[in-house]
Design brief:
The protein has 383 residues and is an alpha/beta fold. The protein folds into two domains: 12-21 and 264-382, Aspartate Aminotransferase, domain 1 (Alpha-Beta Complex); 24-262, Aspartate Aminotransferase, domain 2, CATH 3.40.640. The protein is built from 13 helices and twelve strands. It has helices at residues 24-36, 46-66, 79-93, 107-116, 136-145, 166-176, 195-198, 236-239, 247-262, 264-285, 314-323, 343-348, 367-382; strands at residues 12-13, 73-76, 98-101, 122-125, 150-152, 179-182, 202-206, 217-221, 290-292, 303-307, 326-327, 356-360. A seven-stranded mixed beta sheet has the order 2-8-7-6-5-3-4, with helices on both faces. A three-stranded antiparallel beta sheet has the order 9-10-12, covered by helices on one side. A two-stranded parallel sheet has the order 1-11. β3 (98-101), α4 (107-116) and β4 form a beta-alpha-beta unit. α1 runs antiparallel to α9. The longest helix has 22 residues, at 264-285. It starts with 11 loop residues before the first strand and ends with a helix.
Length: 383
Amino acid sequence: MVIFACMERPVIYFDNAATTRPDQGVLDEVIACMNEEYGNPSSLHAPGRQARVRIEESRRTIARLLNVSPSEIFFTSGGTEANNAILQGCCLGLGYSHVITSPVEHPAVLKPLASLAGKGVEVHYLRVDQAGHVDPRHLEELLDRFPHSLVSLMHANNETGNLLPVKSVASLCAGAGALFHSDTVQTVGKFDMDMQKLGMDFAVGSAHKFYGLKGAGFMYVRSGKFFPPYLQGGGQERNMRAGTENIYGIVGMARALELAHQRMEGDQQHCMELKEACIQMLLKKIPGIHFNGDAQGRSLQTILNVSLPASVDAEMLLPSLDIEGICVSSGSACSSGSSQRSHVMEALGADESKPSLRISFGRYNTMEEVEKLVQVLAKIALS
């Protein structure tokens, strides 16, 4: 028998846009829940009722932090399911036959829309500029032509971090009688998401993006905009999402969002300082480096997308960083293992000869880790 052993080494984790390390406070809450709450929330006996209480407490916590009614929050397995449920529910259930979106959306939006396009739904794609921002004038034009549409535009791009001016988009949609869905997976827990002020009709969250557990998420559905369920079966989630609820993930998600709001100002400042320092160090150390998206403008503090010089071997870039114990991504984590070029980079017109990296910062990163990352990238780029 051959036994494989690996030497422990410190890991520098800059892939927080893919997933985050669970907060210890979340783990403590989840473990306690696992020890105490084992009932099925749909059962009428005492353990079932207690499990139901914990779920509804979590729903109220999340609703309070988003400034919505608990009746507008529905639990899912994550952002992908929530996006699919909203898009298919609006188009197939509510009869919306025109959808306005952009070519830089997450695959959890683009792929369902591609499927719906074969079922009588017409999908219209907005122009994006070289920085990756959608063209607001084109949105106005399309809303003039197709006023009662479903508009689906993400709050923060998962590859570049570009931020959408959601309030102005919501205003345009409301004026045209259109519904507005936004994939908010990258922004929930990182901003004060007051849904009453933002004006979205639909939004989504995924616990593992804000230091919760994988396998738990939610969709926000504005009252009066309810649609037929995507998953059918039992009557869970007030007949909006069948399936036994993931009580441990839900309880952990509520705690994670609560902690994220408590630490929000400090986390925002910390990540912004890391991002700005990383930009300046990279500019100084690597001639010809390029930042994709609007890195120093209207963008999320946790994401930085860079293109390295064409001399860098794209195939060996991530393995070389991994050898050094550095975790980053070449794009969306949902395309792991794919050799295809990022659709976001294509839409931006990024130079195909230059390999791109997504560096995403989080609560636990340090300035020393940024310095190490830049040092290793410079060694790779200049060798």
